[in-house]
Amino acid sequence: MWSRITRLIGQDGLEKLIGKSVLIVGIGGVGGYVAEMLARCGIGRVGIMDFDVVDISNINRQIIALNSNIGECKTDVMKARILDINPDCEVVAINSRFNADSATVLDGGWNYVVDAIDSFEDKVALICLAKERGLNIVSAMGAGNRIKPCTFEITDIYKTSYDSLAKKLRKTLREKGITKLDVCYTKEPVVSVSQGVGSISYVVAECGIKIAGFVIDRLLSQ
Q1: 48 by DSSP, 3-state: which?
Q2: Cβ contacts of residue 9 below 8 Å, gap of 6+?
Q3: Does the pLDDT value for residue 90 go beyond 90?
Q4: CA 212, CA 51: separation in Å to the nearest integer?
């Protein structure tokens, strides 16, 4: 099943990925695509953490969301999907919200942590606690309220622009003494919506795929 990827990275590269572990916090639009891509690249151990269930409003953009699994725990659905892709993958499913009280999940020997959390407070807690532990982490910025195909890029949080979430996060992290953070963001202008946040499938997918590619590249170079 890995013949196509070994043509690109070789057997040694594949074995390296099989020996790596990645924790994804937030298995929604962005995080679901990150998990999908990592599973299809042969990552040997994948942690997925989310407290939510699949809702009908998720179907427009979340890779795990189907009419047939509405009401099921996102982590259960994602775990089954990953194992259907790669039965040899060790999937650690944590059906819980990440906050300071659940931070012990970070002590799982992860080679990389992906922050795909929507809640700003929980996002800050994850970043700060991961940094305290010296963990590699990359964070997703805004993917909502955009409709044009986006050019997402990975850069340091302090080099971002045209992203309101990144602006708010920069200020908070500066106050907490965090001087560097890899983030995935786009300069694509937001679309004005009447209420809440609008989203479309290919934009969140682009963000998730960009993050997954970044993590794979970093793991291969370790």
Answers
A1: strand
A2: 17, 220
A3: yes
A4: 22
**The predicted structure's pLDDT at residue 140:** 98
Query: How many angstroms separate the CA atoms of 212 and 41, rounded?
Result: 9
- Predicted confidence band of residue 100 (pLDDT cuts 50, 70, 90): confident
Q: pLDDT confidence of 156, banded at 50, 70, 90?
A: very high
AA letter at 163:
D
CB neighbours of residue 140 within 10 Å: 27
| Closest residue by Cα to residue 37 from 205, 219, 220 | 205
The CA distances from residue 36 to 8, 73, 80, 215, in Å, are 19, 17, 11, 13
What Å distances lie between residue 166 and 43, 112, 160, 183, 184, CA to CA? 29, 21, 7, 9, 10
Amino acid letter for position 130: A
Is residue 141 pLDDT above 90, yes or no?
Answer: yes
Helix, strand, or coil here: 136? coil
